[in-house]
């Protein structure tokens, strides 16, 4: 938190469930806490006024500022001023749905490559949109069945018109249009075991326009598409207009923001559905590489960077007035599983 406050001129973090928040202002923006005025205005607007500039944060309609006071804690540095806020939250802001949470039966969708924007699957309508069981469901079958496992050595695959939803992927039936938009490429996957290494072949599917890997081939008729590699657009009026889609690769910053939004929304959905806050990210040979702990899913944040690169809300007095909208965020603690002792515990 201290590092974030030092990098940003003004940083705001609000907790909706606790109905409280923290405001950090860097020392080069204000020298005395008495020179800062923080107040709530109409339409859920939070105003921060300093001698040099004023800052406005647009909060969700159900969140309002009740009270604020300056508090200097023992561990507070001389590089910042810290203010505590008390909020009134009428209802929690709903978390945005991921791609998996947005798909509906009888709706028509087009699937685009996130890297270049080219169409990979067009005008897909699903008769069934069904969630797949949890990732370790097969290991629990014996606890529920009094007879031999009926699903042994069998995969759950979609039929034509089906869309099966995994934790981070979609299972879709291949159609004839895939030959024009996707490229198949076989790769060899090395899997390490306690006794000896073994390898298996895997068929990856890539975007024909930019060669970005979009998923893999489960069978000759079924595709597994990663939600971190695609954009899904519903067809509202007519077919999707290909001429409006950019075929230029996205900058790294855009790619990073897309991944953050996609993973954060999906983690929140899984946490709510499975009543857990602990997750692991695995590599293709099913070994955990990162452990995650999901915290503070009710957080709202806003920040104003230093310098002149900001959004000006006052055309007559540029540089004196900054405005932004509070964004939903989640706090994630993580640890890498590179340590051999940690791998044994996992």
From TrEMBL:
PANTHER family: E3 UBIQUITIN-PROTEIN LIGASE E3D, E3 UBIQUITIN-PROTEIN LIGASE E3D FAMILY MEMBER
Pfam families cross-referenced by the UniProt entry: HECT_2 (PF09814)
Organism from which the protein derives: Carassius auratus (Goldfish)
Biological processes, Gene Ontology terms: proteasome-mediated ubiquitin-dependent protein catabolic process; protein autoubiquitination; protein monoubiquitination; protein polyubiquitination
InterPro entries for the chain: UBQ-conj_enz_E2-bd_prot (IPR019193)
The organism's place on the tree of life at top rank: Eukaryota
This protein's name: E3 ubiquitin-protein ligase E3D
Catalytic activity: S-ubiquitinyl-[E2 ubiquitin-conjugating enzyme]-L-cysteine + [acceptor protein]-L-lysine = [E2 ubiquitin-conjugating enzyme]-L-cysteine + N(6)-ubiquitinyl-[acceptor protein]-L-lysine
Signal peptide positions on this chain: none
Entry function: E3 ubiquitin-protein ligase which accepts ubiquitin from specific E2 ubiquitin-conjugating enzymes, and transfers it to substrates, generally promoting their degradation by the proteasome. Independently of its E3 ubiquitin-protein ligase activity, acts as an inhibitor of CPSF3 endonuclease activity by blocking CPSF3 active site.
Subunit structure: Interacts with UBE2C/UbcH10 (E2 ubiquitin-conjugating enzyme). In vitro, interacts with cyclin-B.
Gene behind this protein: ube3d
GO molecular function, one term: cyclin binding
């Amino acid at each position: 938190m201290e590092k974030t406050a030092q990098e940003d001129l003004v940083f705001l973090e609000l907790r909706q469930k606790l109905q409280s928040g923290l405001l950090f202002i860097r020392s080069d923006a204000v020298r005395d806490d008495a020179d800062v005025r923080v107040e709530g205005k109409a339409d859920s607007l939070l105003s921060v006024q300093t001698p040099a500039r004023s800052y406005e944060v647009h909060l969700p309609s159900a969140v309002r500022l009740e009270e604020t006071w300056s508090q200097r804690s023992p561990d507070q540095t001389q590089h910042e001023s810290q203010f505590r806020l008390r909020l009134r939250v009428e209802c929690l802001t709903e978390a945005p749905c991921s791609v998996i949470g947005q798909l509906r039966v009888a709706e028509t969708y087009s699937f685009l490559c996130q890297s270049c924007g080219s169409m990979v699957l067009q005008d897909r309508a699903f008769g069934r949109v069904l969630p797949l069981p949890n990732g370790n469901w097969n290991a629990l079958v014996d606890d529920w069945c009094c007879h031999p496992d009926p699903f042994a050595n069998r995969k759950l695959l979609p039929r034509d018109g089906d869309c099966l939803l995994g934790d981070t992927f979609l299972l879709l039936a291949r159609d004839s249009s895939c030959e024009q938009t996707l490229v198949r490429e076989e790769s060899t996957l090395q899997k390490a075991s306690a006794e000896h290494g073994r390898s298996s072949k895997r068929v990856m599917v890539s975007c024909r326009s930019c060669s970005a890997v979009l998923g893999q081939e489960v069978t000759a008729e079924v595709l597994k598409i990663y939600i971190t590699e695609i954009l899904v657009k519903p067809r509202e009026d007519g077919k999707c207009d290909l001429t409006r889609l950019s075929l230029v690769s996205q900058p790294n910053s855009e790619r990073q923001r897309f991944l953050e939004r996609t993973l954060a929304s999906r983690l929140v959905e899984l946490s709510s559905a499975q009543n857990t806050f602990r997750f692991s990210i695995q590599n293709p040979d099913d070994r955990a590489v990162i452990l995650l702990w999901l915290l503070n899913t009710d957080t709202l944040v806003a920040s104003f960077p230093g310098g002149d690169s900001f959004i000006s809300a006052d055309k007559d007095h540029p540089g004196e007035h900054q405005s932004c909208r509070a964004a939903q965020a989640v706090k994630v603690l993580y640890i890498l599983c590179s340590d051999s002792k940690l791998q044994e515990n996992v």
